[in-house]
Amino acid sequence: MSLQLLRLQPAPTALALWATRCRLLSPDGDFGYALHALLSEAFGDLAPKPFHYLGGRQGLLAYTAADLEMLRLNASLAPPDVARALGLDHLDARPFPTAWRTGQRLGFEARVRPVVRGKDGRERDAYLHAVEGTVDTGQVGVDGSIAERTAIYSDWLAAQFAFDGAAQIAEAHLDSFRLTRVLRKAGSGENGKRKTTNNAGPDVVFKGHLQVRDPPAFNRLLGRGIGRHRAFGFGMLLLRPAGSC
């Protein structure tokens, strides 16, 4: 599978205005759903995911298996407000490596939403899911110290890397943690439109080093992303040479 690393430079003011006008900005100011909608508007079925929005200065990065010329053709059909918000006039991409070595060590960064599905089918914070049944025995504190959360989220991340034998974590640290509300659409209201919900959950950035275990599976992991909400700004695995800043 070939991958392109795509970069866009959304215009912060145009992005905020578009998201506000379309009521796609979460109460916490998360642009995930707005960017998802914009990418779908600009690229249709070729909308890239996973993606990571790094802010006004660094822009948006995404992996895609689509042909760059086809992406540009689709982008040329986007309405002016969508083009301005995403910065489509400056769309850029380059081929991303796919020839990894077994045992190769790479630096990584990933913004993830460590959630699991509970018995009722609803998503739940992986930490809260893990402490069910352990609070009475005192194994894990109910207040959830950052050390406890880090340990549980690290286990969750390791399981994501290990899927299909793709990779393993050599070392990782939790770079940032917060609880955020993200916008999602679910079901249909009385007017036939999908209802908007604000879902609260963990918003975590991990940094560290990994080792490739199975190169083809690792390529699939890159293209698929990590965890859930990959179409909304979570789960993109950013790589760098081992030992770089």
Automatic annotation (TrEMBL):
It comes from Accumulibacter regalis. InterPro entries: CRISPR-assoc_prot_Cse3. It holds the Pfam family CRISPR_assoc. Gene3D superfamilies: Crispr-associated protein, domain 2 (3.30.70.1210). It comes from the Bacteria. This is CRISPR-associated protein, Cse3 family.
